[in-house]
Design a protein that fits this description.
- The protein is mainly alpha-helical.
- The chain has one domain.
- The chain has nine helices and no strands.
- It is globular, with a radius of gyration of 19 Å.
- The relative contact order is 0.13.
Length: 202
């Protein structure tokens, strides 16, 4: 299979993931999921996304099968490994800035069982890594993806995964502006999206 055809197949697989993720995040779809699944809808949404990415990657592995690793001359191989490791460290640090139970959807289920009512979404986060970039999880994901790009499959994963992250962040920011209003618009104006080129902006 040619590299062009492999990329086309893999791009379409990523498109299916992006469309599925975005469509289920729309308010109408979320309301329908709530009516069907109650407090478990967010957990179901996350599980669907996790299960969906598995066949996407498997299809990519099939499309790019038989293509060997890139022959990097050191220190480029070490540089990629460093980027990859820094990405994982950044991801772990970024996750500490979130309510992981609420993010995963388990807290909503627990609250429903205990009869606790609270807002579904967290307050606007402007602390921790959010003082440097608006999307610290995505920034870490870029590093993880590109740090692993040592063969055609993982290079394609970095390319199409990055396209998904950029496009997905645009849709997410529209939702965040509706949710937080002027506060998010001001935050967006002051803090970069992925690259902390301003340093500590807040």
């Amino acid at each position: 299979m040619s590299a062009t055809v492999a990329h086309l197949i893999y791009a379409l697989a990523w498109l299916s993931f992006g469309l599925g993720h975005s469509l289920l995040a729309r308010e109408g779809a979320k309301a329908h999921l709530r009516s069907l699944l109650g407090a478990g809808y967010r957990l179901a949404y996350n599980l669907f996304a996790a299960l969906h990415i598995v066949p996407v990657y498997a299809l990519g592995a099939w499309a790019f099968r038989g293509q060997g690793d890139f022959a990097f001359v050191e220190p480029w191989g070490w540089a990629l490994t460093t980027v990859h490791v820094v990405g994982w460290i950044g991801l772990l640090v970024a996750l500490r800035g979130y309510d992981l139970g609420r993010l995963a959807g388990t807290r909503q289920i627990r609250n429903a069982r205990l009869g606790i009512t609270e807002p579904e979404d967290e307050p606007l986060r402007r602390d921790g890594l959010h003082r440097y970039v608006r999307h610290p999880l995505y920034a870490a994901a870029f590093l993880i993806l590109w740090g692993a790009a040592d063969d055609p499959l993982h290079l394609a994963t970095a390319v199409w995964g990055s396209v998904y992250l950029v496009v997905g962040s645009r849709f997410e920011e529209r939702f965040l502006e509706r949710l937080y209003g002027a506060a998010y618009a001001d935050y967006r104006r002051r803090v970069p999206a992925f690259v902390p080129w301003k340093g500590r902006a807040l």
